[in-house]
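::Amino acid chain::
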Amino acid sequence: MERQQRRDNHIMEKLIPLLHSLAEKEERVWQPVFYPTMDNKGYVTGIKRDEGVQLMICMNQAFNLLPESLSLGISLLDKFLSACKVQEKYINVVSISCWFVAVKAVEESHPTAYEVVQQARGIITKAELLRMERIVLRKLDYDTRSVCSVEVLHVLHSLLRTAPSSETCHSNNLKAMTVQLLKCLSWHALGATVKPSLLALSVITVHLEMVSSYWESMAKRFCLILNADMEYLIGLNEQVGQFIASCYEQIKPERGPTPMDHYAIE
């Protein structure tokens, strides 16, 4: 027991400074992006941004890549769309290109441009992918560094595992929380406007609230580390919880076939 306690304390000594570092980096590099919800004269709206993210999700799943690649790709897409106006008809090309840049930055072994184009099935050509990749990198000053929600979630989850067992009862389902976090990132009203650290914290505390009576004490502890406001977190939790619930209740509307149907997820 004493050895385990020493081990947990050692882990916490490493993770808490890491979390502080991520929060400080977030303050420097992250900016919210507010998308128009109505017609934007042919330029990308929030709905079109979300469609682009859905395509990125499908591509990431098709190649069985890390959720960190997808999270970074979404972050780069929001950065790019905030830096320049993009017509709606180019959103698929831009989305795949941002995702491809992220994949190269995260994965040790990644698909080639040819493989990406083959998987996209006519949505983008190799020439378009390589050209847009260069445009994205130049617009971002070749800086793909970003604080991603998935990264923060993993750190918070590791910290959670060092807490007393009574506080972490049934709280180790990291895969489920990662899926829920990616769902939140796919909606512009959450993924583009809420700090990555707070969105990750909200997802994990919403989960804790359902499985542990100690969720509030853990949430306060994490808020203290991230310098976050507990009242704001509680309000965000309500929004996140409702959105996650709606995702599982959602029924696909009837519509004609689109290029996205190549990647339909049941």
Notes: The radius of gyration is 19 Å. The chain has twelve helices and no strands. The CA atoms of residues 80 and 226 lie 26 Å apart. The chain has two domains: 34-139, 147-249.
